[in-house]
């Protein structure tokens, strides 16, 4: 274990006093209880050009060298700081997304996710008293207990999830869709969300109400030009007209067991990302349609860890973009 301590200003003053009295360095070593090399280096560094040793000057030189040897913080670079600030604060990229996308594109700036997290928690991105860390996603959402009684209306289903083709289960192709709705205020507008299982690409449409007829119309319109293989929704009553959608799009619906949101994990995760823009209990009718489209485009162009830091757009359309 290294127990070495740097010379203090008090010790330097004693060295200056003893040198002025003509005491030899070898004697100073024993009087201060320091090693010969420590004292000799201290004197040689600060007695250049036959100048007398000055404790004050020696301490100033020491402080400058200590400051210079400390590692510089990555985000001291203004260009990198602005890039990270923009992606995190304006576009809601996570620290991991920012770090790994920079590495994927092999940019001149590289920074670890941990460094970004430290900056966030130390207030580097706080603005006007608002804590930047509040923009981080919440973990460990509460789930219903196993004894929870499902009170929502039951609908007739066409196929159980266990009947879904293996290619859809293994995410080996695009156009296997998971479906759900995101509610604003009770009885008000909602968002229909459709997520491709392989690429996590999102289609979204605002509906005037969480009703089966609105879901039917929107799903047919959104997917009319897509060669959909399967659709996996939850068992909510808004999907009661799934048979009509099947006939229009020539696709089968596969329903997971009740209270199994993890069977539609891609859609549930995407809904969580949308909640960053459209929090619960807010009236979705107040948002302009162009704003909703803009936020959906942001999500489709945000790199994902599960896609090796590619974006849903890049995977779904098999294109490579320059994002940073």
UniProtKB/TrEMBL annotation:
A GO term, aspect molecular function: transposase activity
PROSITE patterns referenced in this protein's UniProt entry, alphabetically: INTEGRASE, TRANSPOSASE_IS30
Keyword Secreted on entry: no
Keyword presence, Metal-binding: no
Residues annotated as domain Integrase catalytic: 161-320
Biological process (GO), any one: DNA integration
Keywords per UniProt: DNA recombination, DNA-binding, Transposition
Gene Ontology CC terms, in alphabetical order: cytosol
NCBIfam families: transpos_IS30
Homology family: Belongs to the transposase IS30 family.
Biological role stated in the UniProt entry: Required for the transposition of the insertion element.
Protein name: Transposase and inactivated derivatives, IS30 family
